[in-house]
Each structure stands twice: as C-alpha cells, then as structure tokens.
Amino acid sequence: MQIPALRTKRLRNAGIRINPRVPRKPASALCDKLSEYLDDQAIEEVYHAYLFGAEAHQGQRRVSGEPYINHPIAVAEILSELRLDSRSIIAAILHDVIEDTEIPAETVAREFGDEVAELVDGVSKISQIEFDSKEHAEAENLRKMLLAMSRDIRVILIKLADRMHNMRTLDALPAAKQRTIAKQTLDIYAPIANRLGLHQWSRELQDLSFHHIYPNRYRAIAKALKKRAGNRKAVVKKLRVSIERELRESGLDAKVLGRKKSVYSIYKKMSRKHRSFDELHDIYGFRIIMNSVDDCYRALGIIHNLYKPIPGRFTDYIAIPKANGYQSLHTVVFGAFGESLEVQIRTEDMNRIAEAGVAAHWIYKSGPESGATPPQLARQWLLDLLDTQQQTGNPSEFLEHLKIDLFPDEVYVFTPKGDIKKLPRGATALDFAYAVHTDIGNRCAGARINHELVSLPTVLNNGDHVEIISSDTAHPTATWLNYAVTGKARATIRNYLKSQQRYEAVNLGKRLLDRAIKTRRFGRKKLTDDQRRMLLDALGVDNWDDLLSDIGSGIRMADMVAKQLLPPPTNKDKTVTDDNDQPLAIHGSEGMLIHYARCCNPIPGDTIVGFFTTGRGIVIHTTDCPNAKGYRKQPDKWVPVEWAAEVTGHFPVNLRVEVHNKRGVLARIATVIAEQESNINNVNVDERDGKFPAIRFIVEVADRIHLAQILRQIRTEPSVIKVTRAKG
Questions:
Q1: What is the C-alpha to C-alpha distance for residues 526 and 223, in angstroms, rounded to an integer?
Q2: Is 8-208 a CATH 3.40.50.1220 domain?
Q3: How do residues 397-413 score in pLDDT, each as one tens digit?
Q4: Do domains 8-208 and 651-726 have the same CATH topology?
Q5: Would residue 99 show up in a list of annotated catalytic residues for this protein?
Q6: How far apart (Å, rounded) are the C-alpha atoms in residues 75 and 79?
Q7: Which of 103, 323, 520, 703 is paired with 263 by a 20 to 30 Å CA distance?
C-alpha cells in the first residue's frame, strides 16, 4: 500500500527534529499487514508513530549492528498477526522510547494519547531505582508489569512480542547472556504465554529457550524429528485420509490437520519418562476442527470406534475448560500402523482461542457470551497474583509464588456444592482450603475427600470431592509450609506467621523490658512519652513496637535498653528492692518465640533457665543441661525464668526402657503409656544384644507429676529391667 505522507508539523510540535533521511522501507511490510484489517486513518497514525520512534532511536543500534528501530517494527509485526488494534501497534513501536531515549512519557501522551502512554510505561522497566540484586530488580519489574497488565491485558501482549523477537535474535549476544535470558524466558515468559492461552507463542518461546540453554540436545532432537518426519510422512497422510473419510461418511463436516510435538515438549517427555527418542510413539497427532460442540463429541465416538483408545489418556476440556479458557477434547489412540496418535477435537472458535488466547476474545467481540472469557479469567488470575504479592515482602518469595502459579499442569476438584476448583498438580487439601477462602484456610483442621476423613497434606486428584473441616482453635503453623503448594497458600501462611511472630515478640519484649526496668530501681512507674521518644532517638528506632519486637526477638537485650533509659541506682532510690527482680513466668502456651531445648526437653516442675538466641527469642533449658553451662559464660544473654502456677500444653520427654527380649513387650509398654493419657511421638529400639534390648520412647507429658505416674506404671511390667528419663 502507499505510505502516508510525512506530518512534519506534528513532529516539530512534539519536539522531534525532522530527519528526511529516515528510511520508509521498515514500515512498508508492517503497513501492508495492517491494511488487511485496519482503515487508512489508523495506518496513518501507526506510520506517524514509526517516524516518531525512528527519530527518537536515531543513531542507536542493536548488538547485531542493525538500526534499533528494526526491533520495535518487528515487535509490531508479531502483534499484527494477532490483529491487534492500532493503539497496541503504536505502543509496540514506541515501547522502548521512554526507557532508552530522552523522550519523557508526557511527550508520548501528548502526541499519541494517554492510552498509548500507559501501555508504553507498563512495558518499560524500572531503570531509575537502584536495587540490592538482579533478582530484586527482576522481581520489581515483573510486579510493575503485572500491575499494568491488571489494568490493560495488552501490556503483556506487547511484552511477550518484545521477548519473542529478542529470543529470535539472541545469537548476537555472548553465550552466557544467551543462557541467562533463555532461562528467564523458560521460567517466566513462556509459562505466562501458556497461562494466557497463547499456546503458539508459548511453544516457540520454549523451543528458542531450549535451543540456547542446551544447544546440542536441541540439535540432536530436531535432527531425529526431521528424519522421522520423512520416514512417516506417508503413514501420517494415510491416517489423515482415513479419519476424513470416516467423518465424511458419518455426515460430519470436519477439517483434519496434522500436527507434531515441539522439540521442547519431546525433550520434557523423554526426561520425565526416562526414554530415548526412538521409544516415543505419540509424536504425531491430528487436530480435528468441527462446526459445533455436539459434532465434537460425535467425532470422538467415531475416532474411538475407528482406533482403539488408550485407557486413562482421554481428557474433556470442553466440559471443564482450563483456567485460561482453553477448550478441546484430547484422546490418545493406537493408529492403524502401530503408532500412538494424540487427537484433539474442537470447534473453530475453540481453535482460535487455543492459538490466540486472551487476544482472540479481545479482538472478535461478537455479542454476549456464556461463561468466563479468557480476558476475564486472565484478569482474575492477575488480581489473585497481585493480592498474593502484596502479602510478600521478599522478592525471591514473589518469584517463587509466580513460578508456582504458572505451573501448567492442573487438577480439577469439586466443592461440596458441586463447584469446580482448579489447582496445580500436586496441590493438597490445605491448598484447596485457601483456594476457597483465606479465612477457611487459616482455620482448617482437616478435610474429607470423597467423604473420607484425611489430613491436610493429602494430595488431590482429578475429580475428588473435597470438604474442609474448620475450627476456631486452628491456625497456620510453620509445618504447613512443608505441604502447601500454591502461591496463595504459601504467601498467606508466611504472612500470618510473620504477623503472629511480631505480635508475640512485642508482648514478650514488653514483659522483658518491664522486668529490666524494675531491676534498675525504676519501680512501677510508667514510662512517659518523653522518655520513650528519648530512648527511640538514642537507639535509632522508628517506633515503640519496633523496639519491643527487637527485644522479644533477642536482637536487643532488655537490660541494655533499660541502662540507656535510666540512671544507675543511688542510695536515695528505695522505691524497689531486689525482691522485685522476679523471674519471667513461663506458661507453656507461648508461641514461636519461646522454644524448649531438644537437648534436655524441660517439662513443668524442672528447674529451668532461659537464654536469648537472636531472631528466635528465648530458649528454655533445664539448669543441669550441659548446653546450659556454656551459656552461663554469656551473662548478657541469660534470663531468669520459672514455671507459672498454671501451665498448659504437652511437653516431649525421652524415656529409655531396658527390657527382657520377650514377645509383645513393646506393645504392653505402649499400652501402659496410652492408659496414662500420654501420646507416643517416636519409638526406637537399640538391639545392643539379643537378650536385653533398650527401647527409646518420646512421650508427651503435662508435668513432672504426670511423668512420675508413667514411670511408676512402666516399672510394674515384669519384662522391664530399668526405666529412666534420658537427656541429650
């Protein structure tokens, strides 16, 4: 088509120097593609953006040596294949202007409108901030991009097209840089493309990444695939003709397309199943495009009648679509020539969505549609992801959650009301609870899967009916992180533990500081606001709770803080006596900032002592524990403690029982322990000799009196020689 004339006045008004030597050729091919679906006025605006961008990037060259403007034009051409609107194409041409030139966002907004400026800004990296590490910078740029995506999904389409062209031209960079960019693409951008339904883009990004990370493996598989394609070409053609004939004779109008797996998907299958290339048989398959959903199911029956289906290899994504809106029937059958074939059956609309994902529904707006569209599903995913990242302060945690949420394999489970929840493969009942609602997750105590009572770590399978059992006394613990899989569950648990730890640290710090102040002869008089401000200024702490949290966490010693606040005692200060230096009361129900040492396992009734451990709070030992003797050489970390009058909880104790080696002795001792209302956490048998083995139990007791009752009852057993409480 004819290139629009230069609009020099508008360019001058934008502050851009007109260069008559700006080549028009790079934009010609783009304008030809756009003319297939855009009107002349829109194409003229796109060409104006090209002149603007070419002038802005004048003199800049890529590492390959070509003019820089060629890259934005290539990105715009990739987007034109999806038939995106003119605003998106303009933003693609200008996507590096704000980041790599001196032109501000205000100029772009004034010249092309706020919509284009926001798209360009959403794609631009955060370059004006100094970050602690490359990982931190990567995480922050991804957060910025995801936030912009939640406002306008076209941001990620431009970014993915940008990454696509960069990957296609990656050979110009050094090998180490190639691998770094390819690894990031494989971990983040290819899964994002897949999550948004852009499967063609996802496959190309995967193959390009694989090619640069493992070039030798890529070449070997690609060569073997090309060789097999030549050998099996006739076979595939006969199978396609056979399928077309059967469908036509059944009165179905269908389009049958041959397809083969990508190099990267073949590599993944070889790695997962530990097979060589020659052992893989379902590399080739067919895609059947039907006119209606009913025709899809009829075609499935014909295929299964024509070729024997492989059990367990059929999936109905029409009845239960994927999280990104993908719909299709998938089945694997034995072909007539001994080949396993994967067959995908879908309608034309489904096929368009499978190839273009969110872009398909965004482009073709043809009235109201039933169900959630890919853009709606993508937006909900982004909002959930952004909600998760707001609870995450650590960049590495955010990247971890993002990669988990991009995990492609999914399981589909049912709520008690029959609703479907989609979770990553490997998700547990705990993940399901958080998927239903954060409050349900925080209060879950167990679950029923298919009406059977199970524990929270139970892994879910497709089709499970899941019901969560909640309790007001249940709450997240650090152990939950061991079997939580989804990013939402892990972020919520971590956030709860952090807030709970801070709450406990502030309370413990207050108790410790109050005790230290009383010891320093300050009596029961409360601190004034002036005294608090003076102390905070002296220590360089922002607020009072932060100071108490530092004390409770063991980062600061309460006695040292009290010394800065108060003058040394004088003879005139008689408000408090030494009797007020009372030990800290331990109730047994404290949280994660009161730990009981595993070396001596203190229980209520033992004489105890506390020692500060930075970041963990107070660790309680018995006074006769060998490890406690080492801490006594550090008096600044020593804290006088005692058991409170009312102690709650169950405390582990190590028991060593020497017995005669007789049948059933272990069962009888276990019965005795259970009869004393104690739980056995662990059992080990020491076979020193065959005659007198020693059995080690870890049992739960309430206090020393409870322990004495258990020991007394064990000694009554005839087979028991000796029973002692073991330490260390």
A1: 81
A2: no
A3: 666 656 656 655 677 88
A4: no
A5: yes
A6: 6
A7: 323
